[in-house]
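ping. complex inputs:
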Amino acid sequence: MSAPAIPAARTGQPVSRARPVDRLGGLVEFWFRGHTALVYAFLYLPIFVVVLFAFNDTERRVTTWGGFSLKWFEVALNDRVVHKAVENSFWIALPNAFLAALFGTMAALGLQRVRKSVRIGYDALTYVSVIVPEIVIALATLVFFSSTLDLVNPALAALQGDPPRPFRLNFGRETVIAAHVLFNTSLVLLLVRARLSTMDRTLVEASYDLFATPWRTFRQITLPALLPAIVAGFLLAFTFSFDDYIITTFTSGPGSTTLPLFVFGQVKRGVTPETNAVATMMLAFTLSMLFLGQLVLRWQGRRRGQKGSVAGIVAESAG
Amino acid sequence: MTAAAGVQAGARELGDRGGGWRSRLLTALLVLPASIWYLFLLVLPLAIVVIFSFGVRGARGGFTPAFTLDNYANIFRAVGVDPFINSLWMAAAGTVGCLLVGLPLAYYIATRAGSRKGLFILLLVIPFWVSFLIRTYAWFLILDPQLAVAAVRDLFGNPDFNLLGTPWAVLIGLIYGYLPLMVFPLYVTLERMDRTLLEASKDLGAGRWGTFRQVTLPIALPGLVTGSILVFIPMMGEFVIPQILGYGRTFLVGNALYLDFLEFRNWPAGAAKAVVLIAVMLVTVTFYLWFINRGRRTREASVL
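pong. complex structure:
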């Protein structure tokens, strides 16, 4: 069994290139390749099925193929409920992504300047917010908002002189945004800190030695170096919020149904190809966000002579 | 003037500590928004959940202050503990499933993909960017009695064969949903592996299985631990998958929490379950880390 390895080692070839001639080795290689191919099929088949049945020309079951048609996209695009859900989804995901990218980056920069004990406490909170199951965060936020509103609303009414219909604070987009920003700030914080730790400090030193002000150093050295992580964080925050079901369902109000809530409701009530059409459009949108992020990073990278990709940054941080 | 000089000197290094009052003010301003969020949307809510878990349900739902351990006692009575046992089983099975599917894949990408590694990883990331809900819905369609399952049913000639609404459907959904979280850390550790070790192992007469068990697996261990924790924890609290693919029949902690908070409005009972869930998770993860590290220490000792 060790026979083929020796010539490979002698010629200095990496093991991965060594062609195993023994039968078991051939089988193992074959199994490896087959397994990998199957997993990738397993990953993409479901997505393909969702998209395929969005074009299904049927009035009955989604999974009974009745020919190709675009009519369910037309139905979805003319559906008032879908319009409202799209509007809500965007007006939650966008402010959330801006706030999370801003707060996360600020905190990552600030944490480099604090005492170690403070930083450890902060790290603990960051990990808690990522590690505690989403549903626990969701219900804790629900209980907190609900209790706060119960305290604030009578006071608000009293301030307005107890009119019959006082202005009240309620569950809505704002509560959803606030809840999403918590999780996403941690996400951006982790990404930007990972980038900061691998950043070349000598550039900052050089900038100061050349008498640049702190602001100018930040703008010309630190920020461009962090930008890939910030862009990746922004995109992740946006997609997380855009796709989130659990936290949204616990913290939204009657008028703030988002696209995932709409899809979930359809699945519970009975699906039509319209569900698939909505899902397909959501999917196309999220993937084009990923593609756009990739383009921005590549363009930035070409200008700065550095490499970076959203997928790479995310995969790196997960490791 | 001196203050400005102080800022400059203080901020000179990125990892600056102390400095003038301006520098300290800047630091405080930088961490302020995130701190507010952590305090009001993480620490306070979790504290409130712990407090509520000792209370009783109000007449119209919600919470009435009290001090009782009934909510906890109810969890450990007959059916109360079922969702926890179900969740532990499903999360453990899902983690093992992700490992069985993910380890060969990560190994293949790290050692056999050559210059196409980036492409393989990108292809792994893309489905992960598709909404979790949509990916779960996809399996709801595939496992539909009329689609893929019909083929299997005809194959085995069992007219009652069905997957939707069974724990198996939930398991498939869990593995599909969390697979990339297992593969990334495994890939990162395997990618850094020194390949000459494999050759050395072969030259010293180890078979394939021996090399895998004694060289590859120990090297992959940190990634394996990270991956397991990354998939196990969200699986414990999963709600969407058991609700859609299990029809809510595979009753997990997530389903119980959802019912307590959004249907029955029995907050104290739900709060107690949430506290127990976190406790169970911490105990499981601690035990897992201890178990893995124990094995590693003895192995290092044997080398010495």
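Chain B touches chain A through 105 residues (CB under 8 Å).
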